[in-house]
Amino acid sequence: xxxxxxxxxxxxxxxxxxxxxxxxxxxxxxxxxxxxxxxxxxxxxxxxxxxxxxxxxxxxxxxxxxxxxxxxxxxxxxxxxxxxxxxxxxxxxxxxxxxxxxxxxxxxxxxxxxxxxxxxxxxxxxxxxxxxxxxxxxxxxxxxxxxxxxxxxxxxxxxxxxxxxxxxxxxxxxxxxxxxxxxxxxxxxxxxxxxxxxxxxxxxxxxxxxxxxxxxxxxxxxxxxxxxxxxxxxxxxxxxxxxxxxxxxxxxxxxxxxxxxxxxxxxxxxxxxxxxxxxxxxxxxxxxxxxxxxxxxxxxxxxxxxxxxxxxxxxxxxxxxxxxxxxxxxxxxxxxxxx
Amino acid sequence: xxxxxxxxxxxxxxxxxxxxxxxxxxxxxxxxxxxxxxxxxxxxxxxxxxxxxxxxxxxxxxxxxxxxxxxxxxxxxxxxxxxxxxxxxxxxxxxxxxxxxxxxxxxxxxxxxxxxxxxxxxxxxxxxxxxxxxxxxxxxxxxxxxxxxxxxxxxxxxxxxxxxxxxxxxxxxxxxxxxxxxxxxxxxxxxxxxxxxxxxxxxxxxxxxxxxxxxxxxxxxxxxxxxxxxxxxxxxxxxxxxxxxxxxxxxxxxxxxxxxxxxxxxxxxxxxxxxxxxxxxxxxxxxxxxxxxxxxxxxxxxxxxxxxxxxxxxxxxxxxxxxxxxxxxxxxxxxxxxx
Amino acid sequence: xxxxxxxxxxxxxxxxxxxxxxxxxxxxxxxxxxxxxxxxxxxxxxxxxxxxxxxxxxxxxxxxxxxxxxxxxxxxxxxxxxxxxxxxxxxxxxxxxxxxxxxxxxxxxxxxxxxxxxxxxxxxxxxxxxxxxxxxxxxxxxxxxxxxxxxxxxxxxxxxxxxxxxxxxxxxxxxxxxxxxxxxxxxxxxxxxxxxxxxxxxxxxxxxxxxxxxxxxxxxxxxxxxxxxxxxxxxxxxxxxxxxxxxxxxxxxxxxxxxxxxxxxxxxxxxxxxxxxxxxxxxxxxxxxxxxxxxxxxxxxxxxxxxxxxxxxxxxxxxxxxxxxxxxxxxxxxxxxxx
Amino acid sequence: xxxxxxxxxxxxxxxxxxxxxxxxxxxxxxxxxxxxxxxxxxxxxxxxxxxxxxxxxxxxxxxxxxxxxxxxxxxxxxxxxxxxxxxxxxxxxxxxxxxxxxxxxxxxxxxxxxxxxxxxxxxxxxxxxxxxxxxxxxxxxxxxxxxxxxxxxxxxxxxxxxxxxxxxxxxxxxxxxxxxxxxxxxxxxxxxxxxxxxxxxxxxxxxxxxxxxxxxxxxxxxxxxxxxxxxxxxxxxxxxxxxxxxxxxxxxxxxxxxxxxxxxxxxxxxxxxxxxxxxxxxxxxxxxxxxxxxxxxxxxxxxxxxxxxxxxxxxxxxxxxxxxxxxxxxxxxxxxxxx
Lengths: 339, 339, 339, 339
Fold this sequence. Notes:
Four copies of one chain form a homotetramer.
Chain A: E1 7-12, H1 16-27, E2 32-38, H2 42-49, E3 56-58, H3 61-66, E4 72-75, H4 82-91, E5 96-99, H5 106-119, E6 124-127, H6 134-145, E7 151-159, H7 169-188, E8 192-198, E9 214-220, E10 225-231, E11 239-246, E12 249-253, E13 259-263, E14 266-270, H8 275-295, H9 304-323, E15 327-328
Parallel strand pairs in A: 1-2, 1-4, 2-3, 4-5, 5-6, 7-10
Antiparallel strand pairs in A: 7-11, 8-9, 8-15, 9-10, 11-12, 13-14
Helix pairs in contact in A: 4-5, 5-9, 6-7, 7-9
């Protein structure tokens, strides 16, 4: 399916993430253009399509996918809508970039896994965009090089200024810690075998029904211990850090010390206030990489198995969190397609 | 001249920089494509055009500029060829991105300045790409914000692993320090009024006829003192740093501490080995910004006056260097077009 | 007991730590001198006393303590000998600085606690010297200031180049993690209520019967969660770091970035290779502080309760480690003398 | 003159520095005690002696030096009083630690140099205490090791929060930059051969008749170029930094990053507000080192030649500053005693 012209992309969902992807493909990405936008709200769809030549607004994903000028699909609708859109795209054998989560639970992720296996080749990439962050990429390259020896532990920090209203303990796992779950699996090339979630006395700045911060501990099937401080009301910034402890050394990312000032009796710098500032380049790189691979007729990046495994680890995490004990992760056998 | 389709670019010169720009526009830049490449060597031109649909190879810049499918020109030929190409493009009223230097000396830069004035509107952007580096952009924004008060001094470091054979004292100024000249003018919004160049006893690692490192001192018309350590055989890496000292604080960029390791009795990280690693994003951003502005019918970025002023400061710098004394910079009056 | 002359100190034990304390009091400490050294090995005692005017060698602690020219006692003998020496000193009502551990287990520590209570006033300081490290002191001051709000979590790293032969899993807790136990209690002003110890697959560089690294998790009675990476064969250096996560910010110590070099494609610095390099100043400050307080007739610094609590937490830690589960710490009620 | 008892020190001058030295020797220094204090103001002398057993107050340096219980002299009186005190001490053949400056000008320094030569052996140490700062010591050791190759340039920053009333341009050189003069000479083991002093437009926060900041450039007789940013009204802190640029790498000290916080959208730490906080350890180490050497019958540390050379470089610096041009330093031939 190698193609010379620009990749024609249908973007499904035009909320915050979807609208941002429309803008990205239109203004930033090389070799792609948005030819379709889909939203259940026809007005929102029309408004998203408005500024873009040759872009049609739809309310049904299937209609967009059936259009002649659609080569590929970017799914950015709410999580519960992913499964139907994914199955429709696989039915049409269309390349897909699906925002995380693949689907909201392991059972539905498994259905997508089975559909893709039935199709017989990979078509879906999942939007774990941290894999496209230059710092994580450097850390991964360093670990893969073997210079520091075998990884033994991974310390993660994940901090947000404040959580939105209605944010729950389960969302702390499913929406936030899920990134560290994927990063742990990807950096180490190992599956997470068990999860525990500990809670200190909560910060007074968290909503009353949210225990924030929490401390998750993963055990991988390769014997690595990964811990995650998740603190979504830290107040001071958006901060994502990781330190890998290996047999011969450690490596840390996320300090973010680009501009250093001296002023008013303090040295230091500013901290990013949201994920856009911290990971914008990773989002750009993710979509460019997906477009480039798709145009070459290839599928790269995190796949449906990664999406399924994350869903299964999240389920174990939420159970560990609510039952207050170490919980093992249950995974089906990894299909040959994803090895 | 606002346009909806992709910007059709002729790239003049297909050496290292030109070939890299061809690749960039083809693979990275959104909203542009290479429709013409020009090189005095017809084989090299053909080879540069080979992988790109709809791209024609030329040996004459004027021929490419006359083509129907050329909207804009990127000049990446050797410096001495710039003047003719710039005058031809201005003659055709075509938007230009011209790699630095604008031209090799102040007199020729002045001729380009006059040609653009005669045309009556700005068409030319000069490739001082550090202005598109995120760290320099943050430093500029901080200085412009006034938070730290008025700038008083600017300390710059500019280090290369090793200089190529044949690198001369004059090239140290014209090819290397010229970046700090532009950065100083841009960060401060002031002209450089005088230059001095001091030389310690040279490093044994420099070629015999090259005095390396050197230490340049600029005085601006706003009374700021800027110093530049230029060391093109430092051996350990490519490193560009700047610290602005203001009335209420200082700000420093260029530490480059993304990945920090502990290993073998040392903490720290790697240093970039060339400008591509350090400034690749700035090159990408520069071209994207030029394409975006051009498609909107605008001209932004460093202009012909900036190119002329850099040439005049370089001339003063080379004279200071060879005569061993503080040398004043001579500039014509700034034309209204560039105010 | 305020005194004007130099404090006359008997140092008990002249092994590595004892000999170092003799040197310290002789050469570094102001207002004190070594008038007695005690070692079961008479030759070693004599050799330790040799270079010091007016210093007598003993083989029995009690004999030294009974001497007229002994005002205070520094115990640096092996842990199992501490109880007897402490009880003898308390019997003589002599001020004591006792190297950690106070005693090897909670039961014996309790006997010392009771003896001191019976005496009716505090005489003993325990050698948890990290409390005298300037970085820990700054961290403590910052936490106590309330600027960052209430502490919620404490992340600790404790790394040694290599463990000595015969180092066991229990020693990992009793000799190494004990420092983080004390630091956690001291920084937070809270008792540790439960301990868990997790083990990743061990490093190949650890001795066969040692599981290294390990990961300890403390829960305090104030609801703070403290984790400790203990890695005694990290290979690259001696590194002690702590990050307190509070309601409004975090604070980290232990980066140790005094001298930063650029060389051979890397920026960074050296890492201390042992605790002497990292904590020498803390040892000096501890002894000076003890001498100054003793001369003023006061007792400051970590007390017998701190020594007892550390012993009790260690016992819980070793049990957690061997049984592989969270273990609660059992403490007697805190006597009024130590409130 | 090796001695076993405590060194009996007369402290001359009991202003801020002198009083601090009295306290230091009384409370911090091992092996020394203050037996005499001298001040032209008898009340101040008495008050300084008050808390110290066996300490006599004098108004005449010579009287203190003649006392039986005085072994050594620490001169901390105002600079103009140094020469007489130094000559009196040399007359008595007493070891001296003299606060910087040795004397206020090169001519008087030369007289002290001649007096010590006539005595035939060295007795005087000058209080350039940065040589006892651990960071400078590490930098010196690294340069001496030859690891980074030959030094080529030295970049220095010297910043104070605010200058006291009455601070003049000449004091900027004589009181502040004099430290960098000594540090440059000491780090490199070279003499300063010429000085230039440049001035940007002054900060609005400096007093009206003070041009602050300034930028000094030294050329050494070994061909090294050293520059100094001196900024005594920087507002944000007391900061002393140095970066040596060598043939194979660079080394920087003075970042001072012990405690790193994240709070209120910023990462970073506090900056020392005065030299006591930054250099207190260096002062302690300097005096201890002088006491130890003196008790061993040795003279170490910066000597009269260092004091004389600093005075000569200062004179050249003040001339360069007022005449606005590069000025050569004139030195007598170095006497054999100081080689």
